[in-house]
């Protein structure tokens, strides 16, 4: 929790990342009355600002929760923000999400996600309880992601739309109070309830969304509609309250009903009428807002209020701009933890003396990428490790070349002579039980001079994890897939 001048950082849990302009204006008023000039946006689609230490903030009649950042309570995340902007399942509309979100009447300690699998902005498995739209109208796949580094477990049945909130509440109680951790245990516990009786047998599969990461900034015409959407990004993640107040006023003036937030710490306005576009152009121009940052600038996820991470990002963006390195289709994160990733590439800071902060002389960096370069695969491979800051740009440049080479192979199997892989096929890899690094024999381990195609059993007994140096004996077999069966 951030403490500043006897103030603490509080989070506004905007369910599903959706607020009306009037309600957002009330939130901004609360922040401004506490002498804040800016608010921050969080990766759980929440809004953060400082309040006095013993504050008990509340907006009457709003139904939203405002909690200290240290409370451990989690916002419900949804892909409402993507509707009408990105591809979507044919029965999922804005109203579908709003109907579900209205069912959530209490705060969760576990991360709950409600997403459409056809979009690629909001991660599918970033939550611990993940509801994912199926092809059957009004029914959702359920995946539990309770064990770091393991594939999410699929629930044996599809969940009815109107049961989602109650399902999430029952599951959280069984997981946290009764300490049940597996799908088998949880489904047995719910077997006699009406919730389980309302589930639908399933034989469909989820295909993980692929394609380039969406560009979520600018004033852009909506596909197939006469309206526009506007996406706003602040490099420092410090959004001026005065500007946001004017955004709310303009939304109310032009009958825009909702403001939505992304996990990338940005916000979007949808359904702007063509006749009102001039007002948005004027507002953007008056504040001198840059609406065309490069994709490499936008597609980053950084720890909140981490000045060192922001400084590293700026350095890397500058280096990539200097050498004109292409990153389209990739997303990047700077992380210290081994869990909670949802980007294509992760830059992780390592060191044996982390309590020394920037004075840790043992610090170095490793670069990891998502399996098959798809962050929804939930598994990461180490590309290079023990790198200095100055070595990072070259390592990332080499990784982008590998990504585009792989993309070419996937799109041109007749040229490369490679057969398209069976998306539903399972693969056996080996994972370090300590840092979760994956050894995949298709790639080998270039850091240990192990060529591609080398089976794990043929590795010498002296082989060790190239990230944490754990011995070969600490690796466990792990079965993963490109597309996860529902």
UniProtKB/TrEMBL annotation:
Concerning InterPro entries, the annotation shows: Rubredoxin-like_dom, Rubredoxin_dom, Rubredoxin_ET
Task: Tell me which UniProt keywords the record has, alphabetically.
Answer: Electron transport, Iron, Metal-binding, Transport
The answer to whether the entry has keyword Kinase is no
Residues spanning the signal sequence = none
GO molecular function terms noted in the UniProt entry: electron transfer activity; iron ion binding
What's a single GO BP term from this record? alkane catabolic process
In this chain the Rubredoxin-like domain maps to: 427-478
Names of the cofactor(s): Fe(3+)
PANTHER family referenced in this protein's UniProt entry, alphabetically: RUBREDOXIN, RUBREDOXIN-1-RELATED
Against Gene3D superfamilies, the record matches this protein to:
2.20.28.10
Name-wise, this protein is: Rubredoxin
Can you tell which superkingdom this protein's organism belongs to?
Answer: Bacteria
Pfam families in UniProt: Rubredoxin
